[in-house]
Structure formats: structure tokens, C-alpha cells
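re: ur question from yesterday

yeah so i grabbed the chain u mentioned. its 577 aa long if i counted rite. heres the sequnce exactly as i have it in my notes:
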Amino acid sequence: MYADRDFRLTKAPEPGQKGVVPDLIQDLELDTLWDGMARGDEFLRQVAQSALLSSLTSIEEIRFRQQVVTDCIAQPAIVREIYDLAVEAITAEHKVFRSIFSERGEALMRRSVEVIEMFVGMLRRLRQITEEHGDKFNSAGFQRFFAQLRAELDDPYFEEIEAHLKALRFREGVVLSARLGDGNRGVGYLLRSPKPENRGAWYNRTILKKPTYAFSIPDRDEAGFRALGELRDRGLNLVANALGHAADHVLSFFIALRTELGFYVGALNLYEQLAAVEEPVCYPEPAPPEQLTLTARELYDPCLALRMNRKVVGNNLDADGKDLIIVTGANQGGKSTFLRSLGLAHVMMQAGIFTAAQSLTSTVTLGVFTHYKREEDATMSGGKFDEELARMSAIADQIKPHCLLMCNESFAATNEREGSDIAAEVIRAMNDADIRVVFVTHMYDLSHRYEDEHTDKTLFLRADRGEGGQRSFRLQVAPPLPTSYGEDLYQRTFHPETGTGGQAAADEMPPTAPSPGTDDAGSRMTEDSAETAAGVKEQPPMGVEAAAVGALPADAAGTDDARAVESSPIGPRHRQT
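ran it thru and got these C-alpha cells back, copy pasting raw so excuse formatting
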């Protein structure tokens, strides 16, 4: 995971917890991404959470991980075999009997010997994998890993370990030394290695260089056996503790191996699911934080693709030198989906994995912050606008230069003039602090203000709308309009058979049954689309526009989508594997 240090798991926010990070998870729907990486494995999910929330800010570290991910995609079976080996070793160690008496003395030694014997077998298998497949990996991370295994897991190492384990079984008895201390009490108990003349079977010990003295404990002398056991534990305690530490050291190696490989196995899981629906992925090109660089081709929302289990519409973006991107246009035109895809692209890039796009070049941010609209406070402790201001205040306390702030219909809870005034103040303060802002809004007053400024550092994007009210879910560079075409939704809801955007728009979004493998979220979104077309009066949830993307006919999505996977630098290789 890192070139110079180990990766440490961090605790993810608890469900229902409030704050900047929980807001980011909710707004970008990171839970869906983590579920895709985990595939039901809770440990993989925990690793994915920790890695994606601990963004890399060094270009060298990002490229280091990208190279490792490239090796994993090229050799998925070997990577999974090593990961399964680490899991097997950890599971086997937990199965070795442990009791309250296994923390010291002879009991600790016996357990440690059994654990290390098991670990030796696992390490031999790991060395065999290294010898057979180590040369197939080209990344600096894997090359260093296999070089370390070759250097440390050589034949003399295993021979020495097996010699020690054989001696520690004490098949010829235990030789201890001690001396008398105060009050003639025994002190200085030490485990000794038997002299050569004292080794072997009893019939070979006919002549000893020194006289020996011995006594036997009667079979029924429980106190004598207990005292002898205590003496034996005293002599073995130092060696038992050292052996216990050795077993823990090897266990920690397998735990670290499982943790770090778990992240790459999660990336493999995500890649295979996106490739299965022919979505393109790429390794983004990171740029220094001081540069305002942002260029993307066929940028799409991977969470939407995972939920719908099908190819979704992507967008192109050319925002180099722009510190403000204002997104306007038709309702349910793909604005929120675009915003989410942009945020996920930054999170995935700075986790060191591929991104959901055909190509991407972007500035490395020092933090991604989101400010999305929320439902009314159910506790009635404050108004909706109060809640919006409180969340923006929390962001202002933590955000810093060279971060990214993404706002989705922020400050729309008040009237347009006041909301535009407040939004303009926030945008101005953020831009002055070298913070890039992407703002999705229906407030024409706000967007028109920036259009009148004619600044070359602002980019205007508008959700596309066809002549009959159809949505292509693509964004184009265009100035804001004073309408969001809410009439299309009105006609579709109350007059589905007549009117602009009525039946024509409904025909563009036919309710379809979810494909095999579509999860509950995908089914719910498809049902919402069906309700909209059927004339249900409720306002569709934010995810409806995403459902429309999944239901879009293949010919309406455009030929660019069909070519996206073919031109992906990663996609074709998956089909070979």
C-alpha cells in the first residue's frame, strides 16, 4: 500500500453519525462502491472504507498503488491465492487451542510450538508461489515483496527453525539449572541444552563424566508433581515468552499481508463487475495541487452502474484552469449523477486505483467536501435552511486551500435572491482560498451573475434536453437558461398522454424489470421510473434520474458509450483473463 510504511486500518463513521465525512459517504453513495469491492466480505469492506477515506496526496504514492493494481489485474489468480493463504494462516492460528493457562510456562510453549509449525508450512507455500510466479510482477511494490521473501525464506532459515522446534519438543527431557538464593530458595532458573554425552536413549548413558543425583516422585504424590511442574515452568518461562513473541511476529506478518492484499482484492472485485457491464476504466493522471487541471472523457457514476448492472451514460469534461463549474439545466437531466461521478473519480484516484472513465487528468485535492440538499429535519429542532448553514459552517471549519467543494442545490431552502446572495458569497470565499467549487443549481439569478462577469475561470455546463422533452443525460458546455423545464415533469405526471414531454418522455424511460444481479436499490429506482411514467403525483427521489440512465435504450446512449470499453487501457485485458 505504501513504499515506506505499513497500511493501518481506521475506524469508519458509525451509521447515523453526523459530520463532514458521513455527509461525503451519503452524498457520493460510497456504501454502494464499498459493497461492490467487498462482495459480501465484511473485512474487505472495512479495508475499502479505510483506504478510500484516507486519500493520498502524493503523486508518487498514487502511481505506486496504480502500478500494483495493474499487476493485480494482470495476475488476479495469483493475487487471490496469496490472499487466501494469508486468511487460511490467520484462521488456523485462531483454531489452535488457547486457555487461561496458555499465557506462560510450558502451556505457552506447547501452543507456540504448534502455531509456529503450522506457520512454517504456510511460509513454505508462500515461498513456492514466489519461486513460480514472482517474476510475472512488474510493480515496485510486488517486486520488493517477492525479493524480501526470497531473501528471508531460504533453505537455511527453514532448517534452523525445524531444528529449534525439534529441540523444543523435549523428547529427551528438560535440563534446567538453578542456584540457591536467600533462605535457600531456588533462583536463576535457566533452560539448558543437554551435553552430547547426556543425549540419546537411556541405554547410551552408561558412563557420565560427572556423578548425577536423582530422586523419583511417587505416583500419588500430587503435591510433588505440582511442585515439579512449577519448577519446570520457571525454567521454561523465558524461552516460552520468546517463542510466543516469535509466533505473534509471524501472525502479524500474515495479518498485514491480508490487510494490504485485501484492498487490491477489493479493487479486483470492482474492476471485474464494471468490466462485466462493459464499462471503461482508466488509470488517471494526477497533477500537483497547485494546478487547476481537470479533463475527463466518458466520466460516469460507477455506483449507478453497479446498482443497475448495466452500462450507463458518461460525460466529457474540459475544465483546465477553471476554479468554478456551474451546472444547470433540465430537471432529471443527469446533473446530480454527474456531480457524484466527479466526486467518486477524485476519491478513487486518490485511493490509488482506477477511475470510472475512459480517461481522466485531474489535480490532486487535499480533501473532497460535499454539500447536498437534505430532507426536512424530522426532529423539528431547526429549519431546513438552518441545517444547510450549519453544515456549510462545519465545512468551512475544516476545508483548506487546494480542496474540492461540490454543492448540489445548496441554499435552495430560502427564496432565490437570498439563496443566490449567500451562494455567491460562499463561492467567492472558497475561490479566494484556492478551493475549486462545482455547483449544481436551479437558481438562475446565481448562474446569471457569473455569466455576466465573463470570467475565464468559470465553466458553465447544462443538462441536455431534446425537443420533445427527452433527456440524454449528457452535459454540454452552454450558458444557463431561466428555466429548468419543470413543465416536462408536470406534463409527464398529470398528462402522460398529451403535452410536451408527456408520452414522448415516458417512452424514453420504459419501466423494465431489473436485470439478473440487480440489487434492491436498482429495483427501487426502476419502480420509481415506472411510477413517474404512470402518473404518480409524488416528487421522484433524487435517484430517479439515475434509473432513467439505466433504462435508456442502447441506441439513445450514443455510439461513444459503445466504444468506451474498447478504447480503455484496462478493459480488453479483463476479457483475456
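noticed a couple things. Residues 285-572 form a domain with the Rossmann fold fold (CATH 3.40.50.300). also DSSP finds 20 helices and twelve strands in the chain.
anyway ttyl
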